[in-house]
Amino acid sequence: MINIALGFDKNFAAYAATTIKSILLHNKNLKFYLMHDNLPKADIKKISKMIEEHKEDYQWIDMSGEFENLFTGNWKSKTLYFPLKLPSICDDNRILFLDADTFVLDDLSTFYNQNLDGYYLAAVNDYGMLSDLKTDNRLKLGNETVDIKEYFQKIRKWNNTDMQRYFNSGMLLMNLDEMRKNNVEEQMLDSLKYNLFAFPDQDCINYVCHDHVKIIEPKYNFMVIFKSTWNRLDDEFKEKLIPYKEERIRPLIVHYLLKPWKKPMDNLPFSKEYNQVKQSTPYKNKMTKQEMFQFKISKNGTYLRLFNKTIFEL
Ligand SMILES: [Mn+2]
Q1: How far is the centre of ligand 1, averaged over its atoms, from the C-alpha of 205 (Å)?
Q2: How far is the CA of 26 from the centre of ligand 1 (A)?
Q3: Long-range contacts from 270-277, C-beta under 8 angstroms, 24+ separation
Q4: pTM assigned to the model
């Protein structure tokens, strides 16, 4: 049995459905834990039916009363906090948490059943963040902004060595037994009371689990990052990632920091396959707000698109 958890609201239902469908296409004997924030009944019905058609198991968890009034940064959705509660939501020994902007390309079972003895979880180093640390980017922190280096080095007090082990929270293979044994859920919820985290869920999980994480290869959370972030990566990372970027080798899990449903970004790694899979979900004809209305001003082009029709382009 493979337990898989996702957390999402109405805005991400179509993309969560695509993540789920990609898992269903390559895997068997699954149980989905679907944590949602006020998801309309119509969405619950559609996604449930899709999973039932594959004869797999699922459970909806209504999180609408939880995590009120916490800082959510640019994400503006409290769903990002949902994975913190998985040790008490799922009573099995492990679970795979995936963001609703991920895409699974293969059988998860060997990966899922790997040895996690002594670890709280397995995750992939956030190589995009290592690259962004070379910039003067400013991060939202409550009502203020702070320089990215100052945030990590002075506020979080994570030095370069710590940052090599700083993991991305879009894919977390959790050892729930070990987490429960060490009250990790309570520690994480507690840490939110005394800390303001710029990347709320991710920094909170890193803060508590840092010394107990098994850092694994990027192919288990191949992050599709901005071009400028890519250009600043250390050569060592670039070399490792290029075969996935060029679709010569299939990673197990793709994580879209740049979104494959936003045009004209549809030339991203594995985005053709992503959109094909999205076409086989109950959301194939549904356009989300992002898809209906796209506006961009940049050096490379300025355009306004409504319902996928270009209104103007410069
Ligand atoms: Mn994500």
Answers
A1: 15
A2: 21
A3: 270/103, 270/105, 273/103, 273/105, 274/18, 274/22, 274/103, 277/18, 277/21, 277/22, 277/25, 277/103
A4: 0.91
